[in-house]
Amino acid sequence: MSETELRVSKIKDGTVIDHITGGHALDVAKILGITGREKRVITIAINVPSKLFKVKDIVKVEGRALKPQEVHKIALLAPHATINIIRDYKVIEKQRVKLPKVIDNIIKCANPACISNSNEPVLAKFYVEDEDPLLLKCHYCNYIMEKADVLQQFNVIV
Ligand code: CTP
Ligand code: ZN
Fold it and tell me: Mean pLDDT throughout 57-70?
């Protein structure tokens, strides 16, 4: 580390979401429900130089684990992200986010005419055709959802 660098603090216990696709840190924060008014330490780093990719984003959350549904949502936007579980300053578990083959009820179909958007008791369901670039196919109407459709639903800037 040279004099021009300042390393972001390590966390004691919690979760580090690393290698987030550049530009998506705030989307990830939003998925985790981070408002900026919580009492715990939260670190958001944007456009950090990365060996693997040119730049990456990082989100560190003290004192909390992620729910499987949150990990799946992150995987939709940042397919190369790694989830690091930290205990007593050590990385005790590291896993790359992964999408299941079938996604149930995490996102809605963008086709307004889809039966999953009607009053029928039908839950949205998609087949993951590709993770990067994202391609999801609706089980009911075959509509193809892309990352921009998902971002719109998470109510974030495309
Ligand atoms: N980290 C942290 N607090 C700790 C330990 C690790 O914030 N107590 C962060 C590191 O800064 C890094 C991530 O968690 O962003 C993963 O840590 P580590 O596995 O030590 O880093 P790398 O070997 O660079 O990870 P990778 O191989 O996944 O690139
Ligand atoms: Zn549909």
Answer: 95
Q: Which ligand has its closest atom nearest to the C-alpha of 82?
A: 1
| Chain-centroid distance, C-alpha 101 | 17
Mean pLDDT, rounded, of the chain: 93
Q: Which domains does the chain have, with CATH numbers?
A: 14-96 (3.30.70.140), 102-153 (2.30.30.20)
Nearest to 96 by CA among 12, 10, 11, 18: 18
Q: How many CB atoms lie within 10 A of CB 147?
A: 18
- The confidence score (pLDDT) of residue 111 equals 97
What pTM did the predictor assign? 0.92
Q: Would you state the torsion angle of the CA atoms of residues 101, 106, 109, 112, taken in this order, to the nearest 10 degrees?
A: 170
Count CB neighbours of 138 within 10 A: 21
| Ligand 2 is an ion; residues with CB less than 5 A from it | 109, 111, 114, 138, 140-141, 143
From the CA of 89, the nearest ligand is 1
Residue 120, helix vs strand vs coil: coil
In Å, how far from its chain's centre is CA 91? 20
